[in-house]
Amino acid sequence: IAAAADAWARGATVLPKPWQPQKPVLPVEGMRNVLITSALPYVNNVPHLGNIIGCVLSADTFARYCRLRNWNTLYVCGTDEYGTATETKAVEEGLTPQEICNKYHAIHADIYHWFDISFDYFGRTTTPYQTTIAQDIFQRLLARGFLLQDTVEQLRCEDCQQFLADRFVEGTCPFCSYEEARGDQCDKCGKLINAVELKNPQCKLCRGVPVVRPTQHLFLDLPKLEERLEPWLERSWAAGDWTANARYITRSWIRDGLKPRCITRDLKWGTPVPLDGFRDKVFYVWFDAPIGYLSITANYTDQWERWWKNPQQ
């Protein structure tokens, strides 16, 4: 308290000069280097105040705090643009998925600029860097034996000649009988649904009746990681600052045993899978989207690995 009172009495002239990082902002030897991201907003809507408060504003506040502390700070974000929701919105508006992304990315950027969010860079996930980095991570997983193939039963619309992603199917909820349940969850009772469990399913594109067909997909072999993950979690819980909720959810996954997780989808709009037999598929958005943090940084600077592969800094 005495030190704070003394600093206050001496005034702003004795404060250290604000740090002015070079452009692009890169880690600096001997400084505290802080990389900040906020959850990538999905591109198929107009952001509202709740979206901004939910993640963007808190990250912006922290970025401003870090800069006031004269820490070398980089704050990046961008729109998440691949996946079923974009295809659905494109059908609704009579545009291509790329046109939808271009339209709503510009809207997002304008709104965050209006709110004076202090991004160093606001990018997007539909870029060549996204494809390059996502496919590289996939190839590394494949080479190390962390992927497996399996057959999945999926709804296929014979009229549209395509397998239907979860959001392209509507039907009656098998739990509460709500008649407008989606192929991934019921908005009335909140339960998660496998699309093939829907009663009276309909294709949202043509209103035809889909049929169940087998299709091959690729999975992350998460059970292979359990032995290495558990001791890492124990160390991380001891040294880190996990919330009680995060600990509880993670413990429940470990307790019940990790399950293989599907990382491919029968869609057109996404990062292509670079493997024979799967080249007509794309990566599932929840495999692809987190890689967007890396690719957005790569679009900001070709020295992006100095931020993402530099634990010493």
TrEMBL record:
Gene Ontology cellular component annotations, sorted alphabetically: aminoacyl-tRNA synthetase multienzyme complex; cytosol
Domain Methionyl/Leucyl tRNA synthetase as annotated: residue spans: 34-311
Location in the cell: Cytoplasm
Catalytic reaction annotation: tRNA(Met) + L-methionine + ATP = L-methionyl-tRNA(Met) + AMP + diphosphate
Entry's EC annotation: 6.1.1.10
Coiled coil: none
Catalytic class of the enzyme: ligase
Any Pfam family the entry gives: tRNA-synt_1g
Keywords attached to this entry: Aminoacyl-tRNA synthetase, ATP-binding, Cytoplasm, Ligase, Nucleotide-binding, Protein biosynthesis
InterPro entries: aa-tRNA-synth_I_CS, Met-tRNA_ligase_1, Met-tRNA_synth, Methionyl/Leucyl_tRNA_Synth, MetRS_core, MetRS_Zn, Rossmann-like_a/b/a_fold
SUPFAM superfamilies for the chain: Methionyl-tRNA synthetase (MetRS), Zn-domain, Nucleotidylyl transferase
Single GO biological process annotation from the record: methionyl-tRNA aminoacylation
Gene3D superfamilies: HUPs, Methionyl-tRNA synthetase, Zn-domain
Record carries keyword Ligase: yes
Principal location: cytoplasm
PROSITE patterns hit by this protein: AA_TRNA_LIGASE_I (PS00178)
GO molecular function: ATP binding; methionine-tRNA ligase activity
Family per record: Belongs to the class-I aminoacyl-tRNA synthetase family.
Protein's recorded name: Methionine--tRNA ligase, cytoplasmic
Gene: Mars_0
